[in-house]
Design goal:
This is Biotin transporter. The protein is mainly alpha-helical and 178 residues long. Helix content is 73%, strand content 2%.
Length: 178
């Protein structure tokens, strides 16, 4: 393998590893709720998508899921293994992949600039997560319970995470100008 190929592969691999570690760390910052805890993962997953683009963002989330599937304690409450991808949180975990990809795709089209477009970007990412997470919970528990325990309690926290995402992007833009 020549030097150009090695360096071309090294940077994205290092970014993906760092992003997966950030997602794992954000999984441990949580508000305990049943059957799905509220974590900062969705915010970090969407930020990874924005920062890395849709391809590397989705690949980073896939790496994170593979780490957990292989037994590394990266999921909320330091859970790991295949059971975590079959339990109540599975729909949200799987939804991280399209959510990161969507965030990266929208960011590449200018949706990470301004005030309202980033808010729409983060809201759209959360909608993807709610769609996959609630659908999985509906399959497990029925639609009424899924909405009651997997959607409604998370709306206020998601609004806060949307605002945090917008503020973080604005802050980062300010640092780049300085």
């Amino acid at each position: 393998m020549n030097t150009i190929t090695r360096s071309t592969l090294f940077r994205p691999a290092l970014l993906a590893l760092g992003g997966s570690l950030a997602i794992a760390a954000s999984a441990q910052i949580q508000v305990p709720m049943q059957p799905v805890p509220m974590t900062l993962q969705s915010l970090v997953v969407l930020l990874v998508g924005v920062a890395y683009g849709w391809r590397l963002g989705a690949a980073t989330v896939l790496l994170y899921l593979a780490e957990g599937l292989c037994g590394l304690p990266v999921f909320a409450s330091f859970r790991a293994g295949p059971a975590a991808l079959m339990g109540p949180t599975a729909g949200f975990l799987i939804g991280f992949v399209p959510a990161a990809a969507l965030a990266g795709w929208l960011a590449a089209r200018g949706w990470a600039r301004g005030l309202w477009r980033p808010a729409a970007l983060f809201a759209a990412g959360h909608i993807v997560l709610f769609a996959t997470g609630t659908a999985w919970l509906a399959w497990l528990f029925g639609l009424d319970r899924a909405v009651a325990v997997g959607l409604l309690p998370f709306l206020p926290g998601s609004a806060v995470k949307v605002a945090l995402g917008v503020a973080l992007l604005a802050g980062l833009r300010g640092l780049r100008r300085a």
